[in-house]
Specification:
Layout lengths: L9 H6 L5 H20 L1 H30 L7 E5 L5 E2 L8 E11 L11 E10 L21 E10 L1
Antiparallel strand pairs: 1-2, 1-3, 3-4, 4-5
Length: 162
């Protein structure tokens, strides 16, 4: 009445313990299909990162320059300044220079709607040009950079009291 359980051989148990080749190939295919779109998005993310970094450094440079103009009470001539990739000013157009900054100050600017014409302001126009390849440029008659296609130039304006 009692039956002895049938024991499976050790060979039979060891062949069923792992994954088959087909199961492994299917799993790798699923992983590949999931990863390919994410890898395709990497260049878009890097471009967005570069643009955001460029905007942030440009804004910091413009804020620093407009602060200098707010502290100074004398009008300055148009000037060009150079900055590295971190927004630190360099001594000139060196190999570390990434940002070229052109500054033009216009005197006697009165805000629209300001009835007191005796309080003129100076308008400080700050152009921050992301120029890592050191392209040549030319200035217009008003002192601003002549813009051409493909240049990443950001313009900022500040108004300072005379």
């Amino acid at each position: 009445m009692f039956s002895t359980p049938v024991r499976k051989s050790a060979y039979f148990r060891s062949t069923r313990a792992g994954f088959s080749l087909i199961e492994t190939v299917i799993a790798l295919g699923i992983v590949a299909v999931a990863l390919i779109p994410m890898i395709g998005l990497m260049p878009i993310g890097l471009n967005s990162y570069r643009t955001a970094t460029d905007q942030m450094v440009g804004a910091c440079i413009a804020q620093q320059i407009s602060g200098e103009y707010n502290v100074s009470s004398t009008q300055k001539a148009a000037q060009q300044r150079y900055f590295d990739q971190f927004g630190q000013e360099t001594s000139g157009a060196t190999s570390d220079t990434v940002y070229f900054v052109n500054i033009v100050e216009t005197a006697g600017f009165v805000l629209p709607g300001d009835s007191a014409a005796g309080r003129p302001l100076n308008q400080v126009q700050i152009e921050v040009w992301y120029n890592p390849s050191h392209l040549s440029f030319s200035l217009q008659s008003n002192g601003l950079i002549s813009k051409s296609a493909g240049q990443r130039i950001r313009e900022y304006s500040a108004y300072v009291a005379q």
